[in-house]
């Protein structure tokens, strides 16, 4: 990696599984197809994420590069994201369902943590991608107003993020102005994130 | 596990890393302390989760069983959850921050995916727990109205979930009426979760 990428700026303060620091979000993809077995293994991993009352509120609308729905999904991404996401192998819209019918009930109940649960599924998908040698990059910059209509999403669902999936490409193949950002990001110190007993974070 | 737990109902349709199916959410904890090195490795893993613009909007307020803040955190859980969560080694409130000051800006911008990003951190924490032999269980049933005041959480943050962390205990030590639920949950068929090109899920 060192020949292609800048020095990895990631240092951990506690020992953790390498999967957490090896996962990052490149923009350089090769444009190659993703095999179905790998793609569906990503959805499979997401399926086992934890969720409130096992409600499993995640849904994935996917399109293969050049295939059914590709232009619609790519077209939803902001212009700056389209510049690199156009070379992903697959684009996915991650949806969450906002209600759930509990065991024994007949009427749906609101799911307060539908977005959080979708985030757990997204992380599972991203880790399984590392496991099979693929890269992922979540896209928050997309046309949120028009996404439901473009994708045929009914009331009761939220389009959370787009996800680019593919084989990681060479940094040098990216548009020049994007190349500088093409490296694993660092994190704030761990002490910024935990507090004992009550809130005492400096913000 | 088979001597202590019912038959594991988890079957995958595609091959995935065992970490996804090995992680589940038991209610039986031993009440033993969690070592600091293990506890902080869980927050460390969460720290490397992906987030919009690397905003890292997750915060963790923790309490050790019997230690500073324990009664407040346990007291926030609904009565039914307190029955088993009282034997966790650590309780955590996961918060998300709703705004972020982007690079080069001086004013904060709303983070639309703060809950989703917190969910990615929660999943990372849960997977790292499996890695160090601990169990986790997210608690959505807690006093959401009073949690901010009890924990001293200011405006601009959301208390997302509580998380019980600890060493997994024997099913038989749980209150009898909870024992039947003490097993890994299955999932709906994978085909329920993905669609090509546009929304066509049956709901």
TrEMBL record, chains A, B:
This is Nitroreductase. PANTHER family: NAD(P)H NITROREDUCTASE YDGI-RELATED, NADH DEHYDROGENASE_NAD(P)H NITROREDUCTASE XCC3605-RELATED. It comes from the Bacteria. GO terms for molecular function: oxidoreductase activity. It comes from Methylobacillus flagellatus (strain ATCC 51484 / DSM 6875 / VKM B-1610 / KT). It holds the Pfam family Nitroreductase. Belongs to the nitroreductase family. The keyword Oxidoreductase applies. SUPFAM superfamilies: FMN-dependent nitroreductase-like (SSF55469). Residues 22-65, 79-167 form the Nitroreductase domain. Signal peptide: none annotated. InterPro entries: Nitroreductase, Nitroreductase-like. The keyword RNA-binding does not apply. Keywords: Oxidoreductase.
């Amino acid at each position: 990696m060192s020949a292609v990428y800048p020095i990895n700026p990631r240092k951990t303060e506690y020992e953790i599984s390498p999967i957490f620091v090896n996962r990052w979000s490149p923009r350089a993809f090769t444009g190659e197809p993703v095999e179905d077995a790998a793609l569906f293994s990503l959805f499979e991993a997401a399926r086992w994420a934890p969720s409130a009352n096992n409600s499993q509120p995640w849904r994935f609308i996917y399109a293969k590069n050049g295939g059914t729905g590709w232009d619609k999904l790519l077209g939803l991404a902001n212009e700056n994201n389209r510049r690199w996401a156009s070379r992903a192998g697959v684009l996915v819209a991650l949806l969450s369902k906002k209600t759930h019918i509990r065991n024994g009930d007949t009427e749906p109940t609101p799911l307060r943590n539908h977005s959080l649960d979708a985030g757990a599924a997204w992380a599972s998908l991203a880790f399984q991608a590392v496991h099979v040698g693929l890269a992922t990059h979540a896209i928050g910059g997309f046309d949120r107003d028009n996404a439901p209509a473009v994708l045929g999403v009914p009331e009761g669902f939220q389009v959370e993020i787009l996800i680019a999936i593919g084989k990681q490409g060479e940094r040098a193949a990216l548009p020049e102005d994007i190349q500088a950002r093409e490296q694993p990001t660092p994190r704030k110190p761990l002490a910024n994130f935990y507090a004992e007993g009550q809130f005492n974070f400096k913000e």
